[in-house]
Design brief:
The complex is a heterodimer. Chain A is built from nine helices and no strands. Chain A is mainly α. Chain B is built from nine helices and no strands. The chains are: A mainly alpha, B mainly alpha. At the A-B interface, helix 1, helix 2, helix 3, helix 4 and helix 5 of A face helix 1, helix 2, helix 5 and helix 8 of B.
């Protein structure tokens, strides 16, 4: 039953990605990126990862789109037409893709309950998290907040660092900024 | 290459296709915003790859429903280990095999909290072994065991999404700065400007 939804969503994802690659108008491309994020969030929901789906919908389709649109407002709207169609990158991508597809032939099949990823680490942590976290029903939250708590702390540090870096990069130096503005008006 | 293999690997191939589309956008387009879009597509495809691997057939999201957490724990024991006995005594061999597969399957867990275990131990004392087996077989047959998909990929990808948006915003800030400095965000034009100066 789920494959009935699975296949169309995957096809739509592929079509959206190709459309983004072919698109010249940056504004439309960013909008299509939002659509792409929503489609992948839907697929994650089908793949039993509602937490990731929520986050992807909020962060990938929401915040990322807003950030890119505001960047676009500060820069230019149009991607210009290239003189010649890039052949080399296409072949490079094709070869890499073929190698990766060859690599998947040994992968465990979709949904296989005996795949190595399902057996290691010992899946009993799903039961244990019930006891350790005093009956918190969502195992993902339990693992994220307790067993991988340091990981989450590191993630917060990364976000803080990125925020500080963005502020430093975009900071207007008062004197320089005024000078530039005045030279622009003169010229 | 049979149909089963194609169906089993189809989603990996789509993920690889998305990945390569993102890669192509990054290396073939000169516009920097377009490159960031390409990186985003690549990144999302990696999330999808991990989430795909965590899916278990017939599984559900790793959220333990209250009815399982609150003491219907006997089901849990029936699903783990003991169930092989139960099925073995009255079921055909393929059912036994099925039960074993489920036992081996990863996050196949009925949540067993302490209260449930307590109840179970009392039940063991009260009931005779034969009755116990029969009771468990009964429980397994009427309540289908819950199978959870693997929560680990979800956890890892949650972290990756947040880190991804942090790096994206950093890249976009750099693009704004480059635009202020060079007046363009096309890579080849910037290289020309650098060469001329």
């Amino acid at each position: 039953m789920s494959s009935l939804i699975d296949f169309p969503i995957l096809a739509l994802l592929a079509i959206t990605a190709v459309t983004i690659a072919r698109m010249r108008d940056l504004w439309a491309a960013i909008m299509f990126t939002g659509i792409y994020s929503f489609l992948s969030a839907s697929w994650m929901l089908i793949l039993d990862a509602p937490d990731v789906a929520f986050t992807e919908a909020a962060v990938g389709a929401g915040i990322a789109t807003v950030l890119m649109l505001s960047t676009l407002a500060l820069t230019g709207k149009k991607d210009r037409q290239l003189a010649h169609a890039p052949i080399m990158p296409f072949f490079l991508v094709l070869i890499t893709g073929c190698v990766l597809v060859y690599g998947t032939l040994d992968m465990p099949h979709f949904g296989d309950p005996n795949a190595p990823i399902q057996l290691h680490p010992n899946p009993s942590f799903v039961e244990k998290s019930q006891h350790d976290m005093h009956g918190l029903p969502n195992v993902v939250t339990a693992v994220l907040a307790s067993y991988r708590g340091y990981d989450t702390l590191g993630e917060t540090t990364v976000v803080l660092t990125a925020g500080i870096a963005v502020m430093i990069i975009l900071r207007k130096e008062k004197d320089d900024g005024d000078q530039e503005a005045s030279t622009e008006t003169i010229s | 290459m049979n149909v089963e293999q194609i169906v089993g690997l189809y989603n990996y191939w789509i993920v690889i296709f998305l990945m390569m589309t993102g890669f192509y956008i990054v290396i073939a387009r000169q516009n920097m915003i377009k490159s960031v879009i390409g990186l985003n597509i690549f990144q999302t495809s990696v999330f999808l790859l991990y989430i795909t691997m965590g899916k278990v057939n017939g599984g559900t999201a790793p959220i333990i429903p209250p009815r399982v957490a609150n003491g219907h724990a006997a089901n849990g024991h029936a699903a783990n280990g003991h169930s092989t006995n139960g099925h073995g005594t009255n079921g055909p061999a393929d059912v036994l095999e099925h039960a074993q597969t489920e036992h081996a399957a990863a996050p196949v867990h009925e949540a067993v909290n302490e209260a449930g275990e307590h109840a179970h131990s009392i039940a063991e004392e009260v009931l005779s072994p034969l009755g116990e087996i029969a009771r468990q077989a009964d429980l397994t047959s009427q309540a289908e065991p819950l199978i959870y998909s693997n929560p680990m990929p979800s956890v890892l990808m949650l972290t990756a999404i947040v880190v991804g948006i942090a790096t994206t915003s950093l890249a976009l800030a750099l693009i704004v700065r480059i635009r202020e400095e060079y007046g363009t965000i096309e890579e080849d034009k910037i290289l020309e400007l650098d060469r001329d100066s």
